[in-house]
Amino acid sequence: MTHCAIAIDGPSGAGKSTLAKAAAKELGFLYVDTGAIYRTVGLAALRRDLSPSDETAVPAMLPELVITAGYGPDGLQHMYLQGEDVTEAIRQHAVSDAASRVSAIPAVRDYLLEMQRRFAAEHDVVMDGRDIGTVVLPDAQVKIFLTAAPEARARRRYDELLARGQEADFETILADVKARDHRDTHRAAAPLRQAPDAVLLDTTQLDLEGSLARLLSIIKEQLPHE
């Protein structure tokens, strides 16, 4: 049986996870948050007092990690590290930075590639990340590059952290967003870029409802019809 894959790529804070999750629910597809997998590796590095940029120590710890994803009745993805549900822990701001750094290590990307492809082989999926349409699922039936201006993305992240009860400084977050953009687009391993056959969706001027409506419209236009 051939399954359908929708690949959504884009920079940090573009709303990929929120929109991909909502689209998957609307379509009856499985949502796969690949960023959460990298966040889990980043969290593991921090917990072991390793530099997330250490290209020797981080790959060396990978065989010791037990990383799994589980799905509840609502279809939401939970991440587990050594059996512990770390779904909330990986959303800390420090873990976001660690995820960006570990994801720049080629050995980490290679290690996690098959895990991501296995999801798509077994389910109809909406998968989001930074190299889904270019590397992980280059044959995805639908590819979308989701983006927004750095200031808009920083504001959304700032509001999200405040809503979670965490302290946040907008200027610091904006600087981090721009620094992460530079790392993601300039890394040697699978840099962030728009696939040639991906549809561009800029949500700078759109609210959540408008962004989702436009995303679903693009998906339905691009999906193969029986």
Main beta sheet strand tally, sense and closure: 5 strands, parallel
CATH topology: Rossmann fold
Helical residues, percent: 40-55%
Q: Look at the structure and name the CATH superfamily.
A: P-loop containing nucleotide triphosphate hydrolases
Using only CA atoms, what is the Rg? 17 Å
CATH architecture: 3-Layer(aba) Sandwich
**Major β-sheet strand ordering:** 2-6-1-7-8
Shape: globular
- Return the domain count: 1
Topology, number of strands? 8
Distance between the termini: 15 Å
> Mean pLDDT, as a whole number?
90
Low-confidence stretches: none
SSE order, one letter for each helix or strand: EHEHHEEEHHEHEHHEH
Report strand %: 15-25%
Our count of helices gives 9
Q: Helices and strands: which structural class?
A: alpha/beta
Can you describe this structure?
- The structure is a single chain.
- The protein is α/β, with parallel strands linked by helices and 226 residues long.
- It has one domain: Rossmann fold (3-Layer(aba) Sandwich), CATH 3.40.50.300.
- The chain has nine helices and eight strands.
- The strands form two sheets. It has a five-stranded parallel sheet with strand order 2-6-1-7-8, sandwiched between helices. The protein has a three-stranded antiparallel sheet with strand order 3-4-5.
- Helix 2 (34-47) packs across helix 4 (93-102) and helix 7 crosses helix 8.
- The radius of gyration is 17 Å and the shape is globular.
- The model has no long low-confidence stretch (mean pLDDT 90).
